[in-house]
């Protein structure tokens, strides 16, 4: 008798500013079946000092939580786990310290994702778990930031991440748990000021449903149910009633609200102030709650990547269009780079396979900076890839892309390479060498296909084998390759060319 294969299990971890969450799911046919959820209140954001460094106590709380999560993930393959870190690690100057120590505790890479990427993934989590069709406004108030998204089906139309969260606002406006009308008004006004620059855009875009996600809005919904609003719908009027109830207490510790957990008490007033401001700024009439959020978004996208086109491909194509990239040339460089790299890494593991994919996108976008100017266009390209909003890419991946295109030509000032956390510099060097050769070999922008070119690599020493006599009819290319040899030599690398 043939046994059914065991369903694939995947897991996602959300390293939030207030809580860490882990969700594990089985892949059943075309859907996901959630089989476990885990949550720990870590309050990572409370460990950020004025210099934006995480204190040791907060780092240790985070590591202790990851150690617990790691127990549940024993035996999971790397491709089946995704860990995303949000606002606090985006802000922390010493995030690398946390990431380095985490390496020894949980054997999966931690991605620090940009705010807009966090917003997109939150929307994806909500969209997959909400039955309603039509345009949605999704609001997620976290510990350090608030994400606001308008989208339809599984596509986002407008997304922002604002630096206002229940942990950071609690520290600033409700120090030592002190609650009064003045503090509440100040926190609400500060959040309205944050909303000022985007409110008109959102109101003009409009939506059919407003949906809240994650802990802050979930807590507000549960307290409203405890107040007798059994449908759990959040409205401006109900929020005002809730605010009045909160103001009947002088300190967060004293709050005795049905449905409010002990661990949510310290940051509850700050969360209500932010949601009040969002309702007021966007003129929201009513809001429902969704169980889907960032971690569900991570899960669904992880599974989608095995079945559907990668969103990063769509992002790269959109950027190429936006910056008027010569696609014929970009494809030539991409094809050459992938051909050469396949000779260097004929059987890449997971890390090198991911890097080879990034090499392809880097090649596709290596001339994006030409839209700014030709002189120093490699630096312009790097800037665009590092600081643009790129759905599907985490900060590390954007840094890798920026590094590849920054070093595609001219002098190899390797001391200017940025620090990385998931990848190591030695992983990037072969990619840089490959892209440089692909760019040089296609320097004439010819539509004629390149002949068969072989490359061998022995660490820093590479050998390029060109067809016999080919150099004679390609003297400009030969000069470019000799220049490339000089650049490599100054960086301590060696390029040998056989003709």
TrEMBL record:
Residue stretches making up the Ppx/GppA phosphatase C-terminal domain: 311-485
Subcellular location per the Swiss-Prot or TrEMBL entry: Cell membrane
Keyword Amino-acid biosynthesis appears in the UniProt entry: no
Main localization of the protein described in the UniProt heading: membrane
Enzyme class: hydrolase
UniProt EC number: 3.6.1.11
Pfam families: Ppx-GppA, Ppx-GppA_III
Residue ranges occupied by any Ppx/GppA phosphatase N-terminal domain in the UniProt entry: 23-305
Catalytic activity, as annotated: [phosphate](n) + H2O = [phosphate](n-1) + phosphate + H(+)
Molecular function in Gene Ontology: exopolyphosphatase activity
GO cellular component, one term: plasma membrane
Tree of life domain: Bacteria
Listed GO biological process terms: polyphosphate catabolic process
Membrane topology reported for the UniProt record: Peripheral membrane protein
Needed co-factor(s): Mg(2+)
Keywords: Cell membrane, Hydrolase, Membrane
Stated family: Belongs to the GppA/Ppx family.
Annotated NCBIfam families: exo_poly_only
Subunit structure: Homodimer.
Name of this chain's protein: Exopolyphosphatase
């Amino acid at each position: 008798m043939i046994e059914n294969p065991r369903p694939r299990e995947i897991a996602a971890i959300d390293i939030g500013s207030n809580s860490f969450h882990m969700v594990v799911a089985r892949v059943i046919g075309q859907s996901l079946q959630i089989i476990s959820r885990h949550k720990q209140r870590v309050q990572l954001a409370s460990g950020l000092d004025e210099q934006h460094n995480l204190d040791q106590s907060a780092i240790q709380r985070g590591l202790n939580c990851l150690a617990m999560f790691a127990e549940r993930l024993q035996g999971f393959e790397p491709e089946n786990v995704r860990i995303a870190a949000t606002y606090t690690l985006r802000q922390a100057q010493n995030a690398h310290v946390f990431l380095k120590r985490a390496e020894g505790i949980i054997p999966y890479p931690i991605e620090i994702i940009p705010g807009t990427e966090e917003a997109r993934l939150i929307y994806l989590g909500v969209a997959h778990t909400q039955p309603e069709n039509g345009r949605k406004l999704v609001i997620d108030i976290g510990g350090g930031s608030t994400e606001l998204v308008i989208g339809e089906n599984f596509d986002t139309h407008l997304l922002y991440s604002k630096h206002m969260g229940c942990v950071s606002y609690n520290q600033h406006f409700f120090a030592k748990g002190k609650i009064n009308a003045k503090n509440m008004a100040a926190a609400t006004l500060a959040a309205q000021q944050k909303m000022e620059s985007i409110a008109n855009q959102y109101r003009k875009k409009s939506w059919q449903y407003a949906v809240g996600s994650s802990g802050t809005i979930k807590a507000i919904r549960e307290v409203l149910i405890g107040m007798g609003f059994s449908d759990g719908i959040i409205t401006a009027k109900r929020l005002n009633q809730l605010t009045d109830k909160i103001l009947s207490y002088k300190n967060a510790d004293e709050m005795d609200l049905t449905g409010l957990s002990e661990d949510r008490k310290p940051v509850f007033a700050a969360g209500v102030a932010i949601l009040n401001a969002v309702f007021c700024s966007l003129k929201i009439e009513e809001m429902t709650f969704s169980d889907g959020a960032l971690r569900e978004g991570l899960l669904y996208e992880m599974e989608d990547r095995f079945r559907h086109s990668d969103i990063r491909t769509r992002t790269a194509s959109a950027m190429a269009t936006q910056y008027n990239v010569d696609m014929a040339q970009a494809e030539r460089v991409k094809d050459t780079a992938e051909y050469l790299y396949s000779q260097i890494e004929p059987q890449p593991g997971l890390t090198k396979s991911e890097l080879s994919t990034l090499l392809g996108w880097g090649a596709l976008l290596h001339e994006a900076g030409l839209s700014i100017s030709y002189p120093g266009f490699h630096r312009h390209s790097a800037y665009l890839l590092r600081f643009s909003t790129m759905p599907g890419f985490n900060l590390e991946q954007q840094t890798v892309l920026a590094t590849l295109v920054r070093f595609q030509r001219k002098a190899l000032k390797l001391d200017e390479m940025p620090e990385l956390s998931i990848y190591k510099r030695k992983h990037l060097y072969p990619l840089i060498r490959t892209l440089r050769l692909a760019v040089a070999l296609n320097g004439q922008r010819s539509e004629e296909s390149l002949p068969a070119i072989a490359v061998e690599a022995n660490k820093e020493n590479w050998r390029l084998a060109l067809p016999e006599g080919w150099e004679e009819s390609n003297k400009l290319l030969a000069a470019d390759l000799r220049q490339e040899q000089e650049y490599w030599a100054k960086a301590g690398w060696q390029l040998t060319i056989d003709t």
